[in-house]
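Entry:
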Amino acid sequence: MKQARVLTEQEQRRLLAVIADTRYAARNRIAFMLSYMGGLRVGEIAALKVGDVLDSEGHAREQIRLSAEITKGGHARTAFVNDRLRKEVERYTAGLNAKQREPERPLLVTQKGKPFTANVLCQLMGGLYKQAGFDGASSHSGRRWFITKLAHNGVSVKVIMTLAGHKHLSTTQRYIDVNDDMLRKAVAVL
């Protein structure tokens, strides 16, 4: 099975520039940022409610609790929100009206105002990658980037497994992308 392409940071900037020109730019951007900065699966992103990302005072949460009902493995987990993702969440939710900010409302809605399904969000993301000219990229590309970035920054594999919600080391290892630049840096330390 072919794995989703992992974008470089320069390619991510290009993708975000393409997203900025879309009709629902803010919504599309937060979907990608939850994937890249939070490591969330597309089904988890589609299932998020406003109350999952905002506290009772309207501030972005430091943690997103993912219930067992929305995770792939059926095991609840916590996604930790870094400062960059917190700012993205605050920017996106600031553009929502009071009704749209109600805790039980879906975080992301389609152009018809309906909650996204995982499949529809997957198609949207795939279309935006294609529009940006990235063959092989999919809704899983952000999650692979998240895991790869953590691994290449020396984060313990046990921590990565926990953040990704993986039960097996072999699953986490399959996500980690290796390229020539990383190989050069590895041998440079010798």
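The radius of gyration is 17 Å.
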